[in-house]
């Protein structure tokens, strides 16, 4: 199969493109051309690279035509964020390609009501990102179920892996969290410490996308969660991370107002975004329909990400290495 991957050098594309190549597919990797994949892989030597500015082409109404010029059988869209952009792509691809796989987010669920969440559970998305992705999903699945372009939506949790900052037990990307855990210092966590987060390794997201592409009859018209085998509480992730350094976590759970006085406004907003949603998502549907079994736990995924930052000199843990 000839597969075009849009946003190919980002978090998921870094793993998806080599996966598809090794599975025997022809891959066209579309990106802005401003960066290389996060992790090098010899498989990229077999990939056709196309430089494209998605935003500019969306504005000009030419993106679908540019994509079709690469002659794909199927398309994976890793970087679509508005219903307008998605609708223009669908209208351009309808009748021309056999399958479109879109990357969504578990944030379409909004504040969780049950744990674990299924894809069809009632949802109340909030925030610009979650609301926009929810609208995109509804449009894509209606298109597919109505007999139009076959579409699949993959909803990742907090995508993590080597090469970028991982969401910490405090629900933000404040490096001081990892530093405190490595040094055995007291770590302040907001709320109850029982708020849930559901990380996922980028390679597990790539695995689910590959399974959807290779089983279109089972995947079309469906949405699937892409998450690790189990969500973790903020306190539980802190305990696991302290164990990387041979320590017991010294966690103090404090009210949100007190926590907010100790972090930047940006980190506070991140913590609220990740912890207040308190997500735990089920992968039952993806397992039963596509055989999806995630290979990385939340704790191991975070450990791999933190270790890579330390090894790259981007995170100083005082000589400690997870």
TrEMBL record:
It comes from the Bacteria. Residues 3-222 form the NAD-dependent epimerase/dehydratase domain. It holds the Pfam family Epimerase. Transmembrane segments: none annotated. InterPro entries: Epimerase_deHydtase, Lipid_A_modif_metabolic_enz, NAD(P)-bd_dom_sf. PANTHER family: BIFUNCTIONAL POLYMYXIN RESISTANCE PROTEIN ARNA, NAD(P)-BINDING DOMAIN-CONTAINING PROTEIN. This is Nucleoside-diphosphate-sugar epimerase. It comes from Pseudokineococcus lusitanus.
């Amino acid at each position: 199969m000839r597969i075009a991957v849009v946003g190919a050098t980002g978090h998921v594309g870094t793993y998806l493109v080599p996966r598809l190549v090794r599975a025997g597919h022809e891959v066209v990797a579309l990106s802005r051309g401003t960066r290389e994949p996060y992790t090098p892989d010899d498989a990229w030597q077999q990939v056709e690279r196309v430089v494209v500015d998605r935003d500019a082409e969306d504005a000009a109404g030419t993106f679908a035509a540019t994509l079709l010029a690469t002659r794909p059988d199927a398309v994976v869209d890793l970087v679509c964020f508005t219903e307008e952009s998605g609708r223009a792509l669908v209208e351009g691809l309808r009748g021309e390609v056999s399958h479109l796989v879109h990357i969504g987010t578990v944030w379409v669920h909004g504040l969780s009501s049950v744990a674990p969440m299924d894809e069809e559970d009632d949802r109340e998305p909030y925030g610009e990102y979650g609301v926009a992705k929810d609208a995109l999903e509804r449009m894509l699945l209606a298109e597919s179920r109505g007999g139009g372009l076959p579409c699949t939506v993959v909803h990742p949790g907090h995508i993590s892996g080597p090469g970028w900052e991982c969401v910490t037990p405090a629900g933000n990307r404040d490096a001081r969290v990892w530093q405190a855990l490595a040094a055995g210092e007291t770590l302040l966590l907001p709320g109850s410490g029982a708020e849930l987060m559901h990380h996922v390794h980028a390679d597990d997201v790539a695995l689910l996308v590959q399974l959807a592409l290779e089983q279109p009859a089972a995947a079309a018209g469906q949405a699937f969660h892409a998450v690790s085998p189990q969500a973790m509480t903020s306190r539980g992730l802190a305990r696991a991370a302290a164990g990387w350094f041979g320590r017991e976590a010294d966690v103090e759970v404090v009210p949100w107002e007190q926590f907010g006085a100790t972090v930047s406004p940006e980190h506070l907003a991140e913590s609220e975004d990740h912890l207040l949603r308190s997500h735990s998502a089920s992968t039952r549907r993806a397992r039963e329909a596509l055989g999806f079994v995630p290979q990385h736990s939340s704790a191991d995924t975070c450990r791999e990400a933190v270790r890579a930052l330390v090894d790259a000199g981007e995170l100083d843990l005082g000589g400690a290495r997870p």
